[in-house]
Model the fold of this input.
Amino acid sequence: MKIPQEGVFLLLSYFEVTDAAMNLPFLPVERGTDHAKLCPVRDVLDCIGDRWSLLILLTLAQAGVLRFTALKRAIGDISQRMLAQTLRALERDGYVTRTIHPTIPPQVEYRLTTLGESLLARIEPLVEWAERNHEVIRGAREEYRLRGAVSGK
Done:
């Protein structure tokens, strides 16, 4: 399929769109099917695309090894239940390891795996972009909010 030049509107037939979609890194999914499980991008984002996963991974990357309470304290506004759920999902998918020390009470430590570290190497440019553009984004949100108030929406 030929890629159109920038600024050129192109009307594609159903077959061209379908053919183009097969070359994407993610697969289009019909509602009511389990095809999303076959898409690597959707599969990864199901775990790390929530509100807390990247914050947990970034915190562990900075600290190295953290116990549950220290991790909760470092993040701040996460509930104990949400932290536990998110850590289980990150452990299930291989981004984090959990070590239980046989003490009373048991001490549980979390650290990134090699897979978690490799993910963060890819996420680091996004974090840097977010830091550089945070004020611009906040300004755009405020501008949007004010436009909505003026237009009555």
